[in-house]
């Protein structure tokens, strides 16, 4: 399994390369954003480990570049920036998971394995369209339509809508949504689910159309069909 490590701190990069290599991974190190961008463009990787604070190109900018190029390689951000806003920002711009420094190496390996396992499952899933009344979600194209209107969503909003539509007419508790959209170790006390449900409602439940997203008090959220 080939990993791209983007890290400018020599002490940290040596520690990570040594540990990952001993764990059976093949690791290529990029010490700045410019080199990382070239390597991301030139080769396919099983996973990218990305620092945010780089000497030239910011890690967030690299995230944007990677997703703009429609490169769907799993990206695990490993950063000293550990505030909730830092995590949410990285996830919004395309990161699949976020691990704050300092970290336990066993947790890093577990997250790498979880992300690559999830990527393989997604790769083997046939292309499909999810529908709920006049709302359509095109999985491979990352495109949403409500009637004749195309809806623009961030990556996290797309993931949230996808899990709701995959489980339409079923109540999903916040814990399950956090697990599926933000990762198994995301802070369960956060109100990020409620915030993103609000974002989705503003974009999906548009004027002139039936409201689809419902809050089930004390239980969670669901998307309900009305025309089936």
How does this model look, in words?
- The structure is a single chain.
- The protein is α/β, with parallel strands linked by helices.
- The protein has 2 domains: 2-116, Response regulator (Rossmann fold, 3-Layer(aba) Sandwich), CATH 3.40.50; 129-223, Arc Repressor Mutant, subunit A (Orthogonal Bundle), CATH 1.10.10.
- It is built from 8 helices and 11 strands.
- The chain has helices at 10-22, 33-42, 59-68, 84-92, 105-123, 155-166, 174-182, 192-204, and strands at residues 2-6, 26-30, 47-50, 75-79, 97-100, 129-132, 135-138, 143-146, 149-151, 213-216, 220-223.
- The strands form 3 sheets. It has a 5-stranded parallel sheet with strand order 2-1-3-4-5, with helices on both faces. Strands 6-7-8-9 form a 4-stranded antiparallel sheet, with helices on one face.
- A hairpin with a 3-residue loop joins strand 10 and strand 11.
- Helix 6 crosses helix 7 (174-182).
- One of its GO terms (molecular function) is phosphorelay response regulator activity.
- This is DNA-binding response OmpR family regulator.
- Residues 2-116 form the Response regulatory domain.
- Residues 127-225 form the OmpR/PhoB-type domain.
- It comes from Dysgonomonas alginatilytica.
């Amino acid at each position: 399994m080939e990993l791209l490590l983007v890290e400018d701190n020599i002490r940290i990069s040596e520690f990570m390369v040594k540990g990952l290599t001993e764990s059976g991974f093949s690791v290529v190190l990029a010490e700045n954003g410019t080199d990382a961008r070239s390597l991301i463009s030139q080769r396919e990787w099983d996973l990218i480990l990305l620092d945010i604070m780089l000497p030239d190109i910011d890690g967030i900018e690299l995230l944007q570049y990677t997703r703009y190029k429609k490169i769907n390689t799993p990206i695990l951000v490993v950063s000293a920036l550990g505030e909730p806003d830092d995590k949410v920002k990285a996830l919004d711009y395309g990161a699949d998971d976020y691990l704050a420094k300092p970290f336990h190496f066993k947790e890093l390996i577990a997250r790498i394995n979880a992300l690559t396992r999830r990527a393989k499952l997604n790769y083997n899933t046939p292309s499909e369209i999810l529908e709920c009344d006049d709302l359509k979600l095109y999985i491979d194209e990352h495109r949403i339509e409500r009637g004749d209107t195309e809806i623009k969503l961030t990556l996290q909003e797309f993931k949230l809508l996808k899990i709701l539509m995959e489980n339409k007419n079923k109540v999903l508790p916040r814990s399950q949504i956090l697990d599926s959209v933000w990762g198994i170790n995301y802070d369960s006390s956060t109100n990020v689910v409620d915030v993103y449900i609000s974002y989705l409602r503003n974009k999906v439940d548009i004027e002139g159309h039936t409201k689809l997203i419902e809050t089930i008090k004390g239980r969670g959220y669901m998307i309900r069909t009305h025309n089936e």
